[in-house]
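Data card: per-record layout.
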Amino acid sequence: MAIAHGFRWLLLIFFIIVAGCVPPPEYLARTGKRIGLDNDYIKVLLLKDQLKVEIVTTAKTKVTQLNNNSIIYNGDAKRFVLFDNQVLQPMQFETWNNEIQVSGITVRGMIQLHPVVGKIQVVNVLKMNEYLYGVLPSEIMPGWPVEVLKAQAVAARTYAYYHLMKTGATYFDLDGTHNFQVYKGKMVETEATNKAVDATAGVIMTYNNRPILAYFHSTCGGKTTDDKYVWQGEDLPYLTSVVCPYCKNSPNYSWQVELTLNEIYEALVKRYKAVGKIKSITLGREDTRVTVVKIEHANGLIRMSGNDFRLMFDIKKIKSLYFEAKQTPTGLILTGYGWGHGVGMCQWGAKEMAEQGKRFDQILMYYYKGIRIMVYSMQK
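The structure for this 380-residue chain is written out next.
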């Protein structure tokens, strides 16, 4: 089975054709009817910089050298163990819709191995719905209400299509970590999240007839924020601040943590040279979020974005940029709200909206401003 590389140039043309005849979201939500399929292929970087890869197939297997499409194995299920010095050109393993295990991770679709700078990059190539089956339970609680699971499915699908259209010539479209959205393969799938993916097949959010960058996060703490206050250089019109009275039941609605000067120093020396004793820390804010951090030390001044400062520490340390700081003799006491970057859909807020009877499209249009909800596929 070959990957549909040739469809990429048709993306925008076909999208406009399909979007023009899409029923309104109210009709989709009320009737459950939809057009389009999640049959487009996506390439997910599953494992990076491996020296050894073990692949175990469960059914008839074909292994192909991608550079010249030559078949190097075509037979029964098999265990393959490959080292970095054996993978000299891209290889593809396929089992015709049967699961594959790669270094202990069970996935759907196909596996590609790409040699990059002497190490093996493991890429899972699979259909969009199969990818989303492994994303949803990794990003949201499967036991939550159906409508919030549908909203998450649409957000995750939209986020993936955004990157499919943006990606240039490379061996993967996105990875399976928090760098994009978390994907853990077939082993985390649940019936509830799979049904949410199927119930919204092909449905995405658009702005100016293009998939949006559908950021989402756990808890906003009462107010989402504009993307430009988190990521420098970004200012997307649909990612604006929204008052959210719905996430108060989140266990991370409010929090407090101590951040010592020693912790800050140790984090700084991992990123900057010649860091001296910390003399002062200044926080700058926009729209309730810390946007700029200035750290004066014995050897100079370090200026960074609030998000870069937050990401210097463990993800559970500074849960959001929505915080106030109080100086202590040993460092800072941070009192904050929410968990995550605070941009786009607040998942705990979406949960409460669903519990109050809101449909998935109503939830999405609350958090993403000026968008349209429609059905889309890269293929006819």
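Known properties of this structure: DSSP finds nine helices and 22 strands in the chain. The CA atoms of residues 107 and 186 lie 5 Å apart.

See the next section for split statistics.
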